[in-house]
Amino acid sequence: MHSKSFGDQVFSIFVYVFLILLGFSTFYPFWNGLVVSLNEGMDTALGGITFWPRKWSLENYYVVFRDTRILNAFSISVMRTVVGTILSVLCTAIFAYGMTKKELIGRKYYMLMCIVTMYFGGGLIPTFLVVRGLGLMNSFWVFIIPGLISVWNMIIFRTFFLGLPDGLEESAKIDGCGNWSTFFRIIMPLSGPVIATLGLFTAVAHWNEWFLPSIYITNEKLLPIQSMLQQILSTNIMTEQMSKLDSAAQSRMSAMKSVTTKSLSMATMMVATLPIIAVYPFVQKYFVKGVLVGSLKE
Amino acid sequence: MAQLATITKVENVKKKRGVAYRMAKQWDIQLMVLPALLLIFVFAYIPMYGVLMAFQDYSIFNGFWASPWVGFKHFSMFFHSPEFWPIIRNTIIISLLKFCIGFPAPIVLALILNEVRHMVFKRIIQTVSYLPHFLSWVIVAGFTMSILSTDNGSLNILLQKLHLIKEPIGFLGQAEYFWGIIVSTSVWKEIGFGSIVYLAAIAGVNPSLYEAAAMDGAGRIKQIFMITIPSILPVVAIFMILAIGNLLSAGFEDILLLGSNPVLRDVANVIDTYVYRVGITNQRFSYATAVGLFKAVISVGLLTFANMFARRSGNSLW
């Protein structure tokens, strides 16, 4: 038995080269963004900033953190993420626990009602009209209420609860616990991992959402950071197009300050990405499990 | 006999009254589910019913109940609009490109990752490649714009250093690059995360199969094709059915963000962005709902078709 043929060795080299290229192309945009955000704006405009800042500067971040619009958008995002995640996970878990009860009258119909929504939906416009009809436009609750119950998460929770030993609930009942106190005293404390997994996914989705706020919110004070960033980036495209027409005006504009629109939007992007990067190591522990639980149900 | 009849009757009455009575008696668990079901009803079922306004001339003043019914007017308007064929073409081309490249890419990555023996290296590559999935499209679009920018974007710098081009190319302002950019960014974002399920499937393959193949003299490449791929085929089939059901979803957020430049209108207009533009921006609610319904009907058709196909090979979804 030969240990390693020539073909296998070539293949090995290919594997490593491919993965290094992939890793590099995934990592580089983050790194370049960070470098640009830490480089002096005027200097960046001269070009050639790739792997390392030429003129270190925190000025971009000073400007971002002094911008009350961005700070306000950031705090809206934090608030919706915290409130939305806690409420959504709690309500979905309560719902799922109720659905595990065999004696629940109408359980079959309730389940059918949930499953239908996984395959069919009303689409953008009818949903928009319902949300508007309920007076949720320009309200903080539009971030929380429509997405409060996730059928998908309910099914994952339910599967988990059904896997818990029956004896636990029976002994709680003997000790005089009702269904609600069993849920809070016995079931929730045992559901740490599944709460963490679903909570982290819900939180990431809350933090990242930009499209629905952009149609439901017209009051700038309620815009979350991602929607704010989208507006900043699209005005950047416009100024870039304008600069082609009138480069003199553009250079006059940027000559006034050392911070350019590019360096500023990069710094804002970094601020909007940072929370994700910060929780990522914790998420990673759970999401692989979460993905597998989700796909097993399919 | 009469007595027996009375007893049955009494039991019937008891049972009839029983549902509400028994539900009230188990109010504590009903209270766990009914509020949630109410939310599902409001935010999923009312919009589903609202789809009927595709057959109306909906106006805000009349509301849903008083708006006149117009049958298939909006559908035929869409079919006869000059934008119909470009939209269908863009939707099909973009989604087919995404399907042909974006669907196999995570499988290939999983197969390649599985060949890495160096565990630390494997872990690093996995960690890095999963990350983009957790970023919003706004951030990804921002990175894409920055890398592809004519104003010292890294790709233009690289191509100029390699003397492949003299002048920077405005990748995001030229129609011919758009589809390539959309497909590559979506692959970039999802390739790592998509590979997780396939890696798990590969991990479940019985190792003795590989040993047997090695005994028979199969090299590593041959083992991939003879053992790994056939073993994960059922998982691949399930995900393929789901992907086919989504074939008309060419992507929405990415196209909306990266294709906003008016120069790109001819290549960047797809069904979903069209629904958004006519529905939200121009407030033509009935027309936009009709376009959305058209897409939903075809998607359900595709899903059913794909599942029928898969059932024959024994891998059906339902």
Which terms would index this structure?
heterodimer, A: 298 residues, mainly alpha, 75% helix, globular, B: 318 residues, MetI-like fold, 16 helices
Radius of gyration of chain B: 27 Å
Number of contiguous helices of chain B:
16
| Helix/strand order of chain A, N-terminal first | HHHHHHHHHHHHHH
CATH topology of chain B: MetI-like fold
The averaged pLDDT of chain B comes out at 86
Report on this structure.
The complex is a heterodimer of chains A (298) and B (318). By secondary structure, chain A is an all-alpha fold. Helices cover 75% and strands 0% of the residues of chain A. Chain A has 14 helices and no strands. Chain A is globular, with a radius of gyration of 25 Å. Chain B has 318 residues and is an all-alpha fold. Chain B has a single domain, classed as Orthogonal Bundle (MetI-like fold). Helix content of chain B is 74%, strand content 0%. In chain B, helix 6 (104-114) crosses helix 10 (175-203), helix 10 packs across helix 12 (220-245) and helix 12 crosses helix 16 (285-312). The model of chain B has no long low-confidence stretch (mean pLDDT 86). Chains A and B meet through helix 1, helix 4, helix 5, helix 6 and helix 9 of A and helix 1, helix 2, helix 6, helix 7 and helix 8 of B.
